[in-house]
Amino acid sequence: MKTMLAKVRAYLDHRRALGFQLKSEGLRLLEFARYVDALKHRGPLTSELAVRWACLPKAADPLWRARRLEIVRTFAKHLVLTEPSTQIPPRHVLGPAHRRRSPHLYSSAEVQHLLRRAGELEGRLQPHTWQTLIGLLASSGLRISEALHLKVSDVDWKQRFLVVRKSKYGKTRLVPLHPTALRPLRDYAVHRQKLFPLAEYFFVSERGTTLARSTVGQTFDQLREGIPYSRRPPRLHDLRHTMASRVLERWQADRKRAVNRILILSRFLGHSDVEDTYWYLTALPQLLAEAAQRFALNEPENS
């Protein structure tokens, strides 16, 4: 009889062959499989096993537990096709697996604070890298991973757009640049070119290498010091939320409002579903209030 590890590996190979990356999900499933095999379990997957593993460690956040169970549940739904005795864990038995937390919406003063702190970093290139990176994220709404993976050849200076390749869900899209965003990018490119003429990636470290995500997180922790918050510290990703929310805010103030325009923003941000873009209506209380008022008046937003 196959071990659970062998079953998980076969499942991951199958799904990845279909184009699914399953990075974090794959890691969690391998952890689950090793846990089950360590118990010397050789029977079918059971709900009891799945729930027991999902609840580890005991001090874990409830959302984390629910997400772990959801990952195993998806695997079980696949496994039951060839092993009918497989038990599929009940949905939401540990609560919801997903919850969007309210983002920190940066004020103009807070963005300036980040830029000023970035300019105080040490190094020949690091201050310029961080000021340009923050400015790009704030003006374009790119995901941080998208910005870090930008290559020198992905910036079209003539047509004024970025090519974001194989981003989330494997999609590639063009992101137009406002003229005010183009000049800082060009200035940075010139400075980087002098130091590292053979650099492949647009944003690079002091050694000319790609920026490590862990290093980026540590540096941003320093830059955000001094920005007040209530529940959780501001994130770099919140610059994307801020950009999207401010765009919707401007559209709502315009006579045309956001009717038939939200789909444009959805594609600009690289969302796979326009519902993900509508979520930004909840980020600003006034946007949510206006949306509720339009609903009450039977004037729903059209996508």
Layout of secondary structure:
Elements: H1 4-17, H2 23-38, H3 47-54, H4 62-79, H5 108-119, H6 126-140, H7 144-148, E1 155-156, E2 161-164, E3 173-176, H8 179-195, H9 213-223, H10 238-253, H11 262-269, H12 274-278, H13 285-296
Antiparallel strand pairs: 1-2, 2-3
Helix pairs in contact: 1-2, 2-4, 3-4, 5-6, 6-8, 6-10
Portion of residues within helices:
40-55%
The assigned CATH architecture of the largest domain is: Orthogonal Bundle
Distance linking N and C termini: 51 Å
Spell out the CATH superfamily of the largest domain. Answer: Intergrase catalytic core
Structural class: mainly alpha
How many domains? The number is 3
Overall geometry comes to: globular
Number of helices: 13
Q: Give helix and strand order, one letter per element, not per position.
A: HHHHHHHEEEHHHHHH
Average residue pLDDT: 89
Biggest sheet: strands, sense, closure? 3 strands, antiparallel
Number of strands: 3
**Which ranges are low-confidence, i.e. pLDDT below 50, for 5 or more consecutive residues?**
298-303
Output the CATH topology of the largest domain: hpI Integrase, Chain A
Give the strand content. Answer: under 5%
CATH class of the largest domain: Mainly Alpha
Cα-atom Rg, whole angstroms? Answer: 23 Å
Strand order of the largest sheet: 1-2-3
